[in-house]
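# nightly structure sweep
# worker-07 picked up a monomer target from the shared queue
# config: single-sequence mode, recycle default, output format = structure tokens
# input follows
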Amino acid sequence: MKVLLFTHKSDIDGMGTAVLSKLAFDEVDYLLCETFNLQNEIAKYYDNGSIYNYDKIFVTDLWLEEPTLSKVAKDEQLNDKFFVFDHHKSALEGNFNKYPFTTIRISNEQGLCSGTSLFYEYLVTNSFIDSTIRKIKDFSELTRKYDTWEWKTKYNNEMPHELTLLFDSVGCDGYIKLMFEKLRNLANRDFQFNELERMLIDNKINQVQEKLSNYARKVYYREILGLKAGIVFIDYEYRNDLAEYFRQHNFDMDFAMLIALDYGTISYRNVKDNVNVRLIAEAMGGKGHDKAASSPISEEQKKELIKVLTIQK
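# output follows
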């Protein structure tokens, strides 16, 4: 079976669905997308006709908007082999869950959902993956716990966080390859890190702590939409760890505005629990969750930000 996957490129939730698809299907082409360019990437496959060459097309940890949704729904060659799995509240509020091929779910009896957990559920239900293989199930659950932050708020378990540190160490394609090779051996054992993986994680922990301490000395404070924002220029991979650093050290800010020029996005993370950063991101042309959201940096904004950095130096 030939499969095309569009998935989120920024974290282990998007990577998790790529790993699961490679475990479930014989031939997989995956495209790592940002929230803001998904529609354009799908349009490219439409325009050159290659989208019709696949037996199944999946969109995971991202959501489709109009007019792409209607286009798929009306396409008799596609609408029964096209599937969307997402867990963002913005998608529900935008009424993007109204088609038979869309599954947008925030939570279930297990807890908060992630793209990987929803996709795993689909693969198991349709017998593409065997639910009795413990380490694949563990991998899906570890990914869900990290992406929903339940590793911190509910389970106090560092392993999901260590999984994302491993991802930060080896990058997108390296992580997909590493996890695929780790999980394809179907021996029914629990998911555990081997010696090399543990070394990479430990090295990353030391690197992260040094980076966070450095970033914390370079915070700019501004009022945005009536809230106190802590603004920092960062490398994209440190956005979640830095927000947690601010919480743990009681920084005087309502939310963090983390500008990653290397990735072309601004990430918003709440530092105070009662702050909904999704609303802030939407005001800036972005999307996301209540506690974690983002917006794209336009070329004009990027030029202005680079000017600021140049002056500072």
